[in-house]
Specification:
Bound molecules: flavin-adenine dinucleotide
Strand content: 15-25%
Number of strands: 19
Number of domains: 3
Shape: globular
Number of helices: 13
Radius of gyration: 22 Å
CATH architecture of the largest domain: 3-Layer(bba) Sandwich
Largest sheet: 7 strands, mixed
Structural class: alpha/beta
Length: 440
């Protein structure tokens, strides 16, 4: 008999896993709290289409996306600028969030996924050590496997028993609060760096961007502490001083959202359960891009599930999903979390000083883009950090910070290589504890 897969929430990773499993003959039903046709924020997203290729999905139709140009990064004073380096295979596309949802949902429906809208998921149904279903506002639903794609605050993950060793709550500094709005373009002045990312802009710990497009200017304000609309409006005014194209007329957006920006969940699976996407904290630490990672995770999870289709889904046979995801994505993005934590401890002056001394250069962006294994990353960090600190030799405090970040990055990369290849509850719990601790 075909297995019943219950997907909680229509997150990007969940839809991809659902589509690929339905294609292989599984009975897949997604339970989503929103109404049909209302999913997606009123803004655009950028992500690497190579993730679609990895999942074996076609490109969206050409009129629904465009390629993104390279971003520039600067410190609070915006004086020194680093340019992102993207190889052709890693080029990102920009797409309306609503179009991306339509594209993925259409694929899922075509492959036989059933979607129940207006159905809030309330929590897991547990039987002994196993997740056997979900409680929803429309009643209890049971299945052979629950894929948790309910986002960062999933009520399923948050209500799992402690004995599962899956982190229930996200730390307050593990997420970034985002305000996003599109404004009119009020000048045609040529500007350098059309897609500018500014760290600690205006002295606020966080990351912001101003992206100039043909017809509008896209503003994103991300902070690690809560802020309100009044502060967002004042800050946008501040950004106008150095961004002449940024007009005053708000065209779209203007709302707040949160993204997890920390290392991935150190345990993503349990008997009858797998977490994916923002629920498993998959976005890039610091920057918050999570769509491509969720899509790739969807493919890895679907492969794991279909390889074990004759068995009941246990942590033991779902574990290769986590191992596969860490190998493909998680291990290499985790060091960014060490950089983020260090930045949060620094003063605005220190951050600007680090940019001014060119401790990181555009060339480094190229080196980072070329890394494909934790071993390569460790060797690069060990080679580059002693060179880097030469430029800040007269600032002992910053030398210590940079050395500490380098050591932590190597430690988390080394630990990722030591993740148990096979599930053993005790060994996994021990590994997860030391992995989580390495970021502190
Ligand atoms: C402002 C902003 C800008 C971003 N820009 C980018 C970008 O440019 N590129 C990029 O790669 N990433 C971006 N991200 C991150 C990206 O949105 C996520 O990483 C990605 O969507 C994967 O998240 P998810 O689908 O797992 O979770 P979510 O997007 O949170 O989706 C969860 C789904 O579950 C549903 N749900 C939640 N709770 C329940 C419940 N109780 N019952 C039933 N259903 C429920 C939700 O309605 C939603 O459909 C951005 C995020 C934000 C907030």
């Amino acid at each position: 008999m075909n297995k019943n897969i219950v997907v909680a929430g229509l997150g990007h990773g969940g839809i991809v896993a659902a589509a690929l499993l339905a294609e292989k003959g599984f009975n897949v039903t997604v339970y989503e709290k929103m109404s049909e046709g209302t999913l997606g924020h009123d803004w655009t997203d950028m992500f690497e289409p190579k993730a679609l290729d990895f999942a074996g999905l076609p490109m969206p139709s050409a009129d629904k996306f465009r390629y993104k140009e390279n971003m520039t990064f600067s410190g609070p004073s915006s004086q020194k600028v680093l340019t992102q380096y993207i190889t052709e295979k890693d080029m990102q596309i920009i797409m309306e969030r609503k179009d991306l949802y339509t594209y993925l949902i259409d694929i899922a429906l075509e492959k036989g996924v059933k979607i129940v809208y207006d159905c809030e998921v309330l929590g897991p149904i547990i039987n002994g050590d196993r997740v056997v279903g979900i409680k929803t506002a429309k009643g209890d639903i049971t299945g052979d496997l629950v894929i948790d794609s309910c986002g960062m605050n999933s009520p399923v993950r948050r209500n799992l028993p402690k004995s599962f060793n899956i982190q229930n709550e996200i730390e307050s500094d593990g997420k970034i609060i985002i305000y996003r709005a599109f404004y009119n373009k009020c000048s045609d002045d040529e500007i350098s760096g059309k897609f500018k990312i500014i760290l600690y802009a205006g002295g606020h710990p966080g990351i912001s961007w101003v992206a100039s497009h043909e017809a509008y200017t896209d503003v994103l304000i991300g902070r690690f502490k809560p802020f309100d609309e009044k502060e967002a409006v004042e800050f946008t005014e501040f950004l106008r001083r150095t961004n002449p194209r940024l007009g005053k007329e708000k065209l779209r957006g203007g709302s707040f959202a949160e993204i997890p920006v920390r290392h991935n969940l150190s345990v993503m699976v349990a008997d009858g359960y797998a977490a994916i996407g923002d629920c498993a904290f998959m976005p890039m630490p610091l920057i918050g891009n999570g769509i491509a990672n969720a899509i790739m995770a969807g493919k890895i999870l679907a492969d794991t599930v279909s390889e074990n289709k004759k068995e009941s889904y246990t942590a033991k046979n779902l574990w290769s999903y986590q191992v596969g995801y860490y190998k493909k994505v998680g291990a290499l993005i985790a060091p960014l979390q060490c950089v983020k934590s260090a930045l949060l401890e620094l003063s605005v002056k220190d951050v600007d000083y680090l940019f001014a001394t060119e401790i990181a250069t555009s060339d480094d962006m190229r080196i980072i883009a070329g890394l494909s294994t934790p071993q390569e990353a460790i060797a690069t960090i060990k080679r580059e950090i002693p060179q880097k600190i030469k430029s800040i030799n007269n600032n002992k405090h910053l030398v210590a910070v940079v050395m500490d970040v380098g050591a932590k990055m190597c430690k988390v990369l080394t630990l990722s290589l030591r993740m148990p290849e096979r599930w053993d509850k005790e060994k996994v719990a021990k590994w997860a504890k030391s992995y989580d601790k390495a970021f502190k």
